Amino acid sequence: MKLASAKNRIIFPLDFASLGEALKSVSLLKNHVGVFKIGLELFTACGPEAVKAVKEKAPGVPIFLDMKFHDIPATVKGAMKSAAGLGVEFITVHCDEGRGLLKAVAEAGAGKTKVLGVTVLTSLSGADLTEIGIDPKYKTPADLVLHRARLARLAGCAGVVCSGQEADAVREEFGRDFLIVTPGIRSATDDVGDQKRIVTPYDAIYSGADYIVVGRPIRNAKDPLIAAEEIAKEIERAIENRGG
Ligand code: C5P
Fold first, then answer.
1. Fewest CB atoms less than 10 Å from the CB: which of 13, 81, 165, 200?
2. Ligand 1, residues 170, 182, 187, 213: which to mutate, most atoms within 8 A of Cβ?
3. What is the pLDDT of residues 146-192, one digit of tens each?
4. What average pLDDT does this structure show over 30-56?
5. By three-state DSSP, how is residue 13 classified?
6. How many domains is the chain partitioned into structurally?
7. CA separation for the pair 45, 40 (Å, rounded)
8. pLDDT of residue 3
9. 68 assigned to active site
């Protein structure tokens, strides 16, 4: 696999409060990453205008609208239709409202936007799950991730968001035809920040992730372009060692 394909697996989150800052990063990184992610911070500040502006600045680069929807099915279905109308490649919905919600959203996005189920946030540890009242039968986040991934699959979602620590189990159970997007990416020297279930870019891809979300390790690097290039090289090595 060529490095061009490796860099296409990097999703860069535009976690900025202003469109100006976001677009600066888009200009800088558009040839070094594969997808731009617009999440709660930028979308709350700028709305659909952000999607339009990023598309204009980086034509052809897919957009991931990471809204992490969480509401009753009718409301989320409507929101999903609006999102699909923006021409985005990916959208997220939390898995913890069950199959009815996931199905409504997957159907509303069908053929236009790939719906990803957010299983268990990478900022949560096993202890956090106990604290928020998750049944202790899910002894590890991986147990709950797999349970929720099954719901997402049954509902017709294109894939899931999970940590690299669960990627191999998800890949093993669901095969190649189910997308795995992995945030919580950190190398040994990176600041961990609020992320808890972290893995390196190499380990995430080697474990079966299709895409990795890498924000602060690129954004806060001395040279973000070099950081992105190094990550792409790691991805390429992982793909080669994994055998495709
Ligand atoms: O690499 P960094 O920790 O900066 O990445 C943060 C980004 O990853 C944010 O945009 C956040 O929404 C996203 N994300 C996450 N955990 C998830 C899903 C998405 O951190 N489970």
1. 81
2. 213
3. 999 999 999 999 999 999 999 999 999 999 999 999 999 999 888 99
4. 97
5. strand
6. 1
7. 8
8. 55
9. yes
Q: Which atom of ligand 1 is nearest to the CA of 118?
A: 21
Determine contact, residues 159/181, Cβ cutoff 8 Å. yes
CATH number at residue 130: 3.20.20.70
Q: Is the Cβ–Cβ distance between 205 and 212 less than 8 Å?
A: yes
Of the chain, the end-to-end C-alpha distance in Å amounts to 8
Ligand 1, CB within 6 Å, residue ranges: 13, 15, 37, 39, 66, 118, 121-122, 161, 183-185, 193, 195, 213-217
Catalytic residue among 30, 52, 68, 112: 68
Give the structural domain span for 47. 3-242
CB atoms within 10 A of CB 137: 8
109 pLDDT tier (thresholds 50, 70, 90): confident
Asked if 178 contacts 146 with a C-beta cutoff of 8 angstroms, the reply is no
The answer to whether residues 124 and 196 touch, using CB atoms and an 8 Å cutoff, is yes
